[in-house]
Automatic annotation (TrEMBL):
<feature type="binding site">
    <location>
        <position position="105"/>
    </location>
    <ligand>
        <name>a divalent metal cation</name>
    </ligand>
</feature>
<dbReference type="InterPro" id="IPR036069">
    <property type="entry name" value="DUF34/NIF3_sf"/>
</dbReference>
<dbReference type="Pfam" id="PF01784">
    <property type="entry name" value="DUF34_NIF3"/>
</dbReference>
<feature type="binding site">
    <location>
        <position position="233"/>
    </location>
    <ligand>
        <name>a divalent metal cation</name>
    </ligand>
</feature>
<comment type="subunit">
    <text>Homohexamer.</text>
</comment>
<dbReference type="InterPro" id="IPR002678">
    <property type="entry name" value="DUF34/NIF3"/>
</dbReference>
<feature type="binding site">
    <location>
        <position position="67"/>
    </location>
    <ligand>
        <name>a divalent metal cation</name>
    </ligand>
</feature>
<dbReference type="GO" id="GO:0046872">
    <property type="term" value="F:metal ion binding"/>
</dbReference>
<protein>
    <recommendedName>
        <fullName>GTP cyclohydrolase 1 type 2 homolog</fullName>
    </recommendedName>
</protein>
<feature type="binding site">
    <location>
        <position position="229"/>
    </location>
    <ligand>
        <name>a divalent metal cation</name>
    </ligand>
</feature>
<dbReference type="GO" id="GO:0005737">
    <property type="term" value="C:cytoplasm"/>
</dbReference>
<comment type="similarity">
    <text>Belongs to the GTP cyclohydrolase I type 2/NIF3 family.</text>
</comment>
<feature type="binding site">
    <location>
        <position position="66"/>
    </location>
    <ligand>
        <name>a divalent metal cation</name>
    </ligand>
</feature>
<keyword id="KW-0479">Metal-binding</keyword>
Length: 286
């Protein structure tokens, strides 16, 4: 039996209900005909032109991304702009696009569960409830460790990126309780403090919110780790692909099959870093 886009959208909507997305978000089916056949699905964090080309070259019929293509209003889809060129490439190549963003963040399992697993957390629970949905996760490490050892292990568990992992806190500080929020999370510091976390792992951390958080901590907990937006969210892709395959194969009256691929493109926009300082200061070796 041929799998259609409608079949896959039904599964994705069940796994990541659009109704659970934050009110400002734009999720769900962006492009495609529900009756079109789907044999190959490509999973990626960002719907960039390069990712669309990667999906087309692989013969994908559907691109599933975490980040929306059309989050804010646009007034033209001319190919003179990146958004228009992407929409055109999708349509011309009969490539459907589906987005699971904040609805994938709050899902269980979802983006934040994948990040919590990469951190090695146990006793995992929601970090915050916003608009009725559980955001982030907080849990414990199997045993206390130093902040430097924790972040080194996290770095090893993440896909490599130019920016690496930035840390605010003393390398030798003891940490055990960890809060995580995939992607941008500097608006959750109040919830992190309330959770009793020793360290907070998120991304896109701005100067002023982090400076204020460290001032409020008086040099103590919570310490702060910026592990990169793309890196922290790309961990979700493999599990999402597996769950879609399983749901299609076991749902309904007949088993449906699709091939899935995970994007190999690093869509983190940064390419290199100059002059990063070690924990020991200038000239340090750590």
């Amino acid at each position: 039996m041929e799998t259609t886009l409608a079949d896959v959208v039904r599964v994705l909507d069940d796994l990541y209900p659009p109704s659970t997305a934050q009110s400002w978000d734009q999720v769900g089916l962006v492009a495609g005909d529900l009756s079109q056949p789907v044999r190959r699905i490509h999973f990626a964090v960002d719907p960039t032109l390069a990712v669309v080309e990667e999906a087309r070259a692989l013969g994908a019929d559907l691109l599933v991304t975490h980040h929306p293509l059309l989050l804010r209003g646009i007034h033209s889809v001319a190919t003179t702009g990146a958004k228009g060129a992407t929409v055109t490439a999708l349509v011309v190549n009969d490539l459907a696009l589906y987005v699971a963003h904040t609805n994938a963040d709050v899902a269980s399992p979802g983006v934040n569960d994948a990040l919590a697993q990469a951190c090695g957390l146990t006793e995992v629970e929601p970090l915050a409830v916003v608009e009725g949905q559980a955001l982030g996760r907080v849990g414990r490490l199997p045993a206390p460790t130093s902040l430097a050892e924790f972040t080194a292990a996290l770095y090893a568990a993440l896909p490599p990126s130019a920016g690496g992992v930035r840390v605010a806190g003393p390398p030798g500080a003891r940490v055990e309780r960890v809060a995580v929020m995939g992607g941008a999370g500097d608006d959750l510091f109040d919830h992190v403090r309330a959770s009793g976390a020793d360290v907070y792992v998120t991304a896109d951390l701005r100067h002023h919110p982090v400076l204020e958080a460290r001032e409020e901590a008086r040099g103590g907990t919570p310490y702060v780790v910026d592990a990169g937006h793309w890196a922290t969210e790309s961990l979700w892709l493999e599990g999402a692909a597996e769950r879609v395959r399983t749901a299609l194969a076991t749902g309904g009256d007949a088993a449906l099959k699709v091939e899935t691929h995970i994007s190999t493109l690093r869509t983190d926009p940064w390419d290199f870093v100059v002059g990063a300082e070690s924990p020991d200061g200038p000239g340090g070796t750590s």
